[in-house]
Amino acid sequence: LGHGSGGQLMAELLGKVITPGLVAPGPAEDAAVVPFEGGGQAVLSTDGFVVTPRFFPGGDIGSLAVHGTVNDLAMRGAAPVALCLAYVLEEGLPIEELARITASVAAAAVAVGVPVVCGDTKVVGRGAADGLYVTTTGLGVLLPGATVSAARGRPGDVVLLSGPIGLHGTAILSAREDLGFEAEIASDSQPLHRLVARMIAAGGSGVHALRDPTRGGLASALNELAAASGIAIEISEPALPVPQPVAAACELLGLDPLHVANEGCLVALVAPEAADAVLAAMRAGPEGAGARQIGTVAADPAGRVTARTLVGSTRIVDMLVGEQLPRIC
Amino acid sequence: MMTSAAVRGGLRIALHGVVQGVGFRPFVYRTAVSCGLTGDVRNTSGHVEIHAFGSEPALAAFLDRLAREAPAEARIDRVETSPLDAAPPAGFGVRTSSDVDGGGRESPPDLATCDACLRELFDPLDRRYRYPFINCTDCGPRATIVADLPYDRSRTTMSGFPMCPACAAEYRDPADRRFHAEPIACPACGPRLCWRTVGGGPIAYGEDALAEAVAIVDTGGVIAVKGIGGYQIVCDAQNEAAVARVRAGKCRPRKPLAVMVPDVDDAARLGFLGATEVTLLTGTARPIVLVWRWANAPLADGVAPALPEVGVFLPYSPLHHLLLRELGRPLVVTSGNRGGEPIAIDPDTARAVLGPLTDGILDHDRPVLSRYDDSVARVVAGAPRLLRRARGYAPASLALPAPAPEPVLAVGAHLKHTAALAVGDRAVLGPHTGDLESAETFAAFEQVVTRLGRLWAVRPRIAAHDPHPGYLSTQYATARFPRGERVPVQHHHAHVVATAAEHGVREPFLGIAYDGLGYGDDGTLWGGEILLATYTGFRRVGRFGRAPLPGGAAAVRHPARMALGYLYGAEDLGGQAIPDALAAGLLGRLDAREVDVVRRMVRRGLNAPLVSSAGRLFDAVASLLGVADDAGYEGEAAILLEAAAAGHETVDALRWRLVHRDGLWVYDPAPTIVDALERAAGEPVGMVAARFHAALAEVTVAFAESVQCPTRTVCLGGGVFQNRRLAEAVLAGLRAAGFDAYLGERVPVNDGGISYGQAAVAAARLAGKG
Ligand SMILES: [Fe+3]
Ligand SMILES: [Mg+2]
Ligand SMILES: [Zn+2]
Ligand SMILES: [Zn+2]
């Protein structure tokens, strides 16, 4: 159960069970850069999508599948070129629903500007799946001048965040559990490749690391970057853009907005000399209109993420450990 | 302990225990000389070694007097003697330290200013008249200034102050009270006071600095003072505005503040002092003592709002004596930190953090090496119980029931954090460092671990830790110790073992752990647990009924949530449900949307883990009775519920019910809650609160009588037993029912005692393997 929330347990599952047998060593990245003969470099990413409910304020599983994969490519500094789509359908899924989701995939792909070039559909028996699963694979090409990697964060970097946090996770939760926040909170699901293209154009190799804080939230994304780069990240809690309805919902539900999933923002570690230009480029488009600096990078203690609180003390920001278990005695 | 030695001539005597930094060598010298012996005495690492030469009766008399006349602060655990084949020297010498072995090492705690030094402090003819750093072998800083053992001036933060000829003469004179008083100092050679304003450097020194500080406090200002174990914040405890300013600065809206008074008579004007309270207040450890306060106690309301108790203590350093003598009134003296951070010990942190909160810093140039907050104690069932073990107590070692075959680091829990080290048959419980939430506290924890290891000259290869994956202490252990070298110790097992180990209880015993939350063996959260325990393991034989914790930690911060948890999701144990109508008061006070969301969370199990907790039941009842819907600090609702019950002495208990479920005895709190709410319609809330305490005491005794158990020994642990009313009723009830019942004394029953419990369990498990 705990493995699904995208925090520490997931990291352990990947580290101990899955990656050792399959993947070349290196820092965990959202997408892989694959060199091929002739000197070209392709970027490849794949992602499975399971979400309940399949339709939620701000999107659905179809658009989410497109945005998620496009964003994973973008986090590696790539422009998307083509998408593949695979469905696993549970027998009994209404055809109209499948049509609606497929239309959403198509619309999202058009908006992104990337064709869905191939696909696959499998149907499994009742109970063998929960309605519908989507897997999207994305092919991209490295943007000129892009050298981003989770391991390239350096002491002195500034930490930039492209927009508000906590929207997607609270929207999904509210829709799934019928909590009544739907009127105020919609998912931030959106493609970020144009934002990244502007950032790379403005900052070049000064854009050191990018990550979209999806499952596990900003806290997990920052911890992953800190671990992969061997750096310390300090963010300022008052600087975090948490929309008021999200803050209210998190307070009611006992969630830390830093642990709530996002699908339409990114966090970047940027060389200080490039920071102004990159921030301006981020703000030049709608996805980055609310971009701001939220923190800084230091050398020590490596791997540690802290948040300076309103009163001036520093709180250690953990990855989510399974379900959020209270630590209070 | 004593070995009578049939020896002619020479004898080597090794004394183990607390024998360093307590004026032991001068005592040995005086005794040896008066017995007519020659030879010498020296501190080695961890023990005192004596080479004594004389007639057989003289040596025997000497050994006898060593045991009987040792200084009050000394504790001799073990005496080893062996014949010494050497030529007797002329006279009796006192040697400086030599580091000859790495055996057991005891670092002495800090000692409050002794009466002799106090007389000199206020004697205009004494050369140390009004000198804020006066001390002798019977008193003064120890643990806070020692970098390494053996305890010697060169290994303390006094090494930077070369002695003047007068001090050097006293230091070298075996007959002098200051013979080898390592922190010896005087106005000519020692540290001096200075007064710093917020932005700038020192602007006054010595008496002038003191006068500036006194004038500011006198006129309602707030100052920081460099104390023994770190900086403190000080203001007039009768000045409402000053107290409010301290609270705002520390981000501490409601948690009570400690009050220092000039002497024990002044303390008696603030609250009721029994003989045990007086002994605690005036002892060399000088903890903050929680006492029942008089209704007309001359204190600002903001000191301990809404509480029937107040924490008082007496001056323990010459500087505190000077301040209190000048001001002659109760002062708030509270740790110098911002909410959530450890107490500041270095001048830069003090200036950065405390500067903005105060009108200036009464500083000095004797560095504080180790951070020691003031200890806190309360008398429960006639015995002193530490709620916070720090200055004056730590790092004195405690016995372990089973010796550790190799050194073990016990990393503690998460809140009220301490770490402990097990070395051989002793455990050193490090000082309280605070809640392990902030990076600053985490760093303080790492410093404690390093310092304990250095003082005891060990590098533990084994770590004992809590199984809670989210505790930063657990993460510390897993990051630094490979799996095979980690010993996980269940939270409540550690709680009850801490009590058992402190009292040297024989296993097996019945452990009763009542606290807020701890990680259970089954992955759920525990907190009202009956364990049949040994030092190595336990079997759960009883528990409290479960309820959801809606919103996790949010339900702990908002006891009203917890009340809703019981209302909508209490475990069905076959008894009555709690009708909504009874909770109309609570439901009327809360936002309708919050109630609705919480009800959905409970129904759908959304971020609402199930807990079997005594502490959370206290929270829920406090909220249902309208005593507290929110907790401004850990345990506030329970503290207020206890406070509400004050004055209702003998009452009948609320209804309760114990059922047998899946092999466990389970307390069903629903009938108790229903009864509480029904009675609250017609009785004062305090009376119902008192009945609730009585019910839990009866339930506890019933647990002990119901479970299949081969022993009559019961060990109580967990933060809920900080509640004096409950603890006294449970102890009395258990004893009346024929049980031997124990509650922590030197080891806090709250999570501050967890590391000691972990150390004891790990040592016992390793010993069992070996
Ligand atoms: Fe506990
Ligand atoms: Mg992804
Ligand atoms: Zn003295
Ligand atoms: Zn001197």
How many angstroms does the end-to-end distance of chain A come to?
Answer: 24 Å
State the shape of chain B: globular
Note the gap between the termini of chain B: 27 Å
* Annotation field: number of helices of chain B: 23
Strand line-up in the sheet with most strands of chain A: 9-11-8-12-10-13-14
Mean pLDDT of chain B: 93
Which residues of chain B sit in consecutive blocks of at least 5 with pLDDT less than 50?
1-7, 98-104
What is the CATH third-level topology name of the largest domain in chain A?
Phosphoribosyl-aminoimidazole Synthetase, Chain A, domain 2
Structural class of chain B: alpha/beta
Please give the CATH architecture of the largest domain in chain B.
Answer: 2-Layer Sandwich
EC number (chain B): 6.2.-.-
Domain YrdC-like (chain B): 207-392
Active site (chain B): 25, 43
Pathway (chain B): Protein modification; [NiFe] hydrogenase maturation
What does this protein look like?
- The complex is a heterodimer of chains A (329) and B (770).
- Chain A has 8 helices and 14 strands.
- Chain A is an alpha+beta fold.
- Chain A folds into 2 domains: 31-142, 2-Layer Sandwich (60s Ribosomal Protein L30, Chain: A), CATH 3.30.1330; 150-316, PurM-like C-terminal domain (Phosphoribosyl-aminoimidazole Synthetase, Chain A, domain 2, Alpha-Beta Complex).
- A 7-stranded mixed sheet of chain A has the order 9-11-8-12-10-13-14. In chain A, strands 1-2-7-5-6 form a 5-stranded mixed sheet. Chain A has a two-stranded antiparallel sheet with strand order 3-4.
- In chain A, strand 5 (78-90), helix 3 and strand 6 (116-124) form a beta-alpha-beta unit.
- The longest helix of chain A is centred in the N-terminal third of the chain and has 18 residues, at 95-112.
- The mean pLDDT of chain A is 91.
- Chain B has 770 residues and is an alpha/beta fold.
- Chain B is 33% helix and 22% strand.
- The chains are: A alpha+beta (329), B alpha/beta (770).
- The complex binds fe (iii) ion (FE), magnesium ion and zinc ion (2 copies).
- Residues 491, 495, 515, 518, 718-719, 751 of chain B line the site of fe (iii) ion (FE).
- Chain B: Pathway: Protein modification; [NiFe] hydrogenase maturation.
- Chain B: The active site is at residues 25, 43.
- Chain B: It catalyses: C-terminal L-cysteinyl-[HypE protein] + carbamoyl phosphate + ATP + H2O = C-terminal S-carboxamide-L-cysteinyl-[HypE protein] + AMP + phosphate + diphosphate + H(+); an acyl phosphate + H2O = a carboxylate + phosphate + H(+).
- Chain B: Its EC number is 6.2.-.-.
